[in-house]
Amino acid sequence: MTLHLQKITVRHEFPVVFTRALFSPRNRSLHAALTRDGLSTRRRCLVLVDKGVLTTFPDLTAHIRQYFAAYSTDLHLVRAPLVLPGGERIKQTPVAVRRILAALHRHNICRHSYCLAVGGGAFLDAAGFAAALFHRGVRHVRIPTTALAQCDSGVGVKNAINYAGTKNLLGTFAPPWAVLNDTAFLDALPQPLLLDGIAEAVKVAAIKDAAFFRAIERAAQRIRQRHLPTIRRILKRCALLHLDHIATSGDPYELGTARPLDYGHWAAHKLEILSRHRLSHGQAVAIGIALDALYASRIGLLPLKQAQRLIATLRTCGLPVWAPELAQTDRRGRLLILSGLEEFRAHLGGQLTITLPAPLGSRREIHAVDTALMASCLLGSALNN
Ligand SMILES: NC(=O)c1ccc[n+]([C@@H]2O[C@H](COP(=O)([O-])OP(=O)(O)OC[C@H]3O[C@@H](n4cnc5c(N)ncnc54)[C@H](O)[C@@H]3O)[C@@H](O)[C@H]2O)c1
Ligand SMILES: [Zn+2]
């Protein structure tokens, strides 16, 4: 037998820019991100836009065209921005991915061209998936327009669409070419979409950064009152914590069985499906982390007082901590939510691994869940009242 042990080291570096008025021609951030490739040719750029963004930014496509016109020496907009409906439905079928692939093909987007996507987390997931498939991956630039996308989903290295009733079953790991977070998108964002980002911030603070948790706890009333400077600060810190985790956890492509940033997500993913997406990802995360905090306190990992502070913080911000879907049962009286545990395990592969705050600001992984105890947590009065 001959064994050759092949080693490949791949280094990824991508800028994550926090800016304002990205498409104002005076703002050079996007131009800088696209021209850092060092090419001397005009770059072909296909821009995809989430239709939902136009409800708060009706002039967005005009601004994008003006921006590319201002930098036409270096950048070539291959067609008018392609507007597609966003939200979770873009991930529910492969229709949008096919349309994006067709546009990439029609406009000769090559591996030295750019596919830019401007939209919410679901839109970026679908666009990133198409970009990762085309030519085995073309350069993809993310411009997230929701709080959750700016502080979590848009800054990471994953994309996906849903398949066979399961969230994110088809997808790839594909670091973006650049991420550009424009805080102006947050100004007119409906309050529930702002709070979705806060749910992810509470999540990451609870397992990684006690001081950050206390800052959110203190700011909860201001968040509810939509104090944008406070919200912007929290979202930025949340994004940086996510980025730091991806860079330093040693498992950016999630080959292990643990996925610490998915604290609360086994229940969240199931709740999204059970509620037929009535609950947004962020709302489902808020409920999932409240539930797991209660469970962590029942098994002695998290002091009850801390679980109560976490739940109170979510509530004060205006986030839900309970939904009727938690109590849904099948014909044999079994709680449907609990099948989310096995689905979560199957998605990661290997042994079940659930991350819990233990205590606030740090985390512990558990590999078995007492489903009777979990049932008593989710039906108990602490969440329901
Ligand atoms: N890839 C990852 O690592 C990762 C991580 C976390 C979450 N996600 C995914 O992200 C998705 C949730 O993303 P989301 O919370 O951004 O919601 P979303 O993308 O579903 O958007 C919600 C709604 O807001 C609209 N919208 C987007 N920007 C807007 C703006 N500026 N003004 C007004 N409306 C706007 C959209 O059109 C949509 O109707 C889920 O599918 C989730 O699974 C992915
Ligand atoms: Zn999430």
What does this structure look like?
The chain has two domains: 16-24 and 41-187, Rossmann fold (3-Layer(aba) Sandwich), CATH 3.40.50.1970; 191-384, Up-down Bundle (Dehydroquinate synthase-like, alpha domain). Strand 10 (354-357) and strand 11 (363-366) form a beta hairpin. The chain contains 16 helices and eleven strands. The strands form three sheets. Strands 1, 2, 3, 4, 5, 6 and 9 form a seven-stranded parallel beta sheet that branches. The protein is of the alpha/beta class and 385 residues long. It has helices spanning 29-35, 60-70, 89-92, 95-106, 121-133, 147-151, 184-187, 191-208, 210-224, 228-248, 265-274, 281-298, 304-317, 339-348, 371-379, 381-384; strands at 16-19, 43-50, 75-77, 82-84, 114-119, 139-144, 158-163, 166-173, 178-182, 354-357, 363-366. The structure holds nicotinamide-adenine-dinucleotide and zinc ion (ZN).
List keywords for this structure.
385 residues; binds nicotinamide-adenine-dinucleotide; 16 helices; two-stranded antiparallel sheet; 7-stranded parallel sheet
Write the layout of secondary structure elements.
Elements: E1 16-19, H1 29-35, E2 43-50, H2 60-70, E3 75-77, E4 82-84, H3 89-92, H4 95-106, E5 114-119, H5 121-133, E6 139-144, H6 147-151, E7 158-163, E8 166-173, E9 178-182, H7 184-187, H8 191-208, H9 210-224, H10 228-248, H11 265-274, H12 281-298, H13 304-317, H14 339-348, E10 354-357, E11 363-366, H15 371-379, H16 381-384
Parallel strand pairs: 1-9, 2-3, 2-4, 2-5, 5-6, 6-9
Antiparallel strand pairs: 7-8, 10-11
